[in-house]
Amino acid sequence: MNSVFLRVFSGVTGALVLFSIVAVGLFYSLNSVRFLQYQEQRVKPLFDWVSVNPEQHLAFLEAISPPDTFIEAVAKTDLPLSRLQRERLGYGQTLVKRHQSGLHAFTTLDRENILVAYFSDLPLGTTLWAGQLIAMQIRALPNDARIQRLDRLAEQFDLTSHIAPMTELAAWQGSKQKLFLENGWVLLPSFPGQGAVLAIALDTEYFVKFDPLPTFDPWAWPIILTLVLVGAVCVGGTLFLLLENLERRLRKLESVTSRISRGELDARVDDNRFDSVGRLAMVFNQMADHIQRLVAVQREMIHAVSHELRTPVARIRFGVQMIEDSVEDPLQIKQLQGIDHDIQELNELIDEILTYARLEQGGPILDFQETNLIDIVDQVVEEQQSVKPEMRITSVFSPDAERWKMSEVEPRYIHRSIQNLVGNATRYAKSIVTVKATFGADTCRIDVEDDGPGIPESDWEKVFTAFARLDDSRTRSSGGYGLGLSIVRRILYWHGGQAFVARSEELGGAKFSLVWPRRQD
Predict the structure, then answer these.
(1) Where are the domains of the chain?
(2) Which of 95, 191, 318, 380, CA to CA, is 20 to 30 A from 365?
(3) Where are the alpha helices (DSSP H) in 65-121?
(4) Which fold has domain 369-517?
């Protein structure tokens, strides 16, 4: 547990360190691009206005230029611009370049000239220029028309503004009032973290106030969302790699478990790490070794006992037959025939035990072949009819059975399973046994129904248990050893199918069903 914890902890810690490095690089890279776009967006409306009437507008801007700010038209050949920058200007874009003490902004004026503006403080410089331009254009208008004109111009220059009365001067500090009266404009402090408010006089009664520009926010929601997504990818990717390795090792353990359940008792987990999964694999292999040894011992014991029993049984049978040849008393002959019949049943029981052991303990080696199921069903019905001539044993096939009659099965075992069901039905049926065969493109199904007393629903699962008998009163009249249905279920298991029991709606007795895939993977 500690090793797994340390591996996951170190992996997540490494992912967080990697994320921190990537996040810092992304933060500065993205914000450098965003800040450049912000600056270009602030100066573009001013350049657009100048481009409408360059000579007149440049002269006006020169007259009202704030300190450390200027704008002029320069020939393209006089500017040391890179090829990429010239291409951007050719597409009508605005460029902003950092200078020693401020910023230079560029845009194309005409085929030969470029507009160049210098700002020591770009947001302040563009706002002062735009504000004075707006004030100049609405100053001569009557009060009613000022507001509509102000809204249109403020939208053009991406500003928010409103007209205020001069009575607000009383709330200002004395120095601000003095600057406003001398210069016709003043910058007023705003809320913390926001730019200054620009106030420009219109006349003796009103002035226009421009709300602070939206300052550049390095922690805008796209940046935060990007960093969160990158963090999720880094941590999630690391956890995926760590857990995928753990999942892969557990899948190997699951695969080996499945192979052992299919009878491959020599399957083992190849995992030599000294962590919780590795220790689990080691204990699992030890358990598999122990199970394999137990199964081998049990198989050897069953085979040894079965074979050892055959010898004395054969001697007894030989002796009984010799006695039969020398005895003439009918009563003694009848007793000897009964003994012979018991010996035959004992032989059959030994065969059943060996078959069940072979199917149950590790699984047989099945030779799947493309087989005609209709022939197998007809053969079983014919064999059982000859054994039980007093019974009416019939086979019924679905309409499309002829088309899908070929299936990949082990013919000997499928024949044995159907034979066991039909033989079991004849022991309990009154007079009728029906074998219904339904074959399709994907599955095959055999239903064996009889008109006997049936099986209580509470015992439907019990009948498939080895050596299980539902009625203790069974004698030679019914026969059986309690292994036939267990053998049927194991045969269907190794064919990837199922065997189950229900009540026959048509005949009223038991209904045993076999279902398995038509093709074996």
Answers:
(1) 2-120, 125-210, 288-360, 369-517
(2) 380
(3) 83-90
(4) Heat Shock Protein 90 (3.30.565)
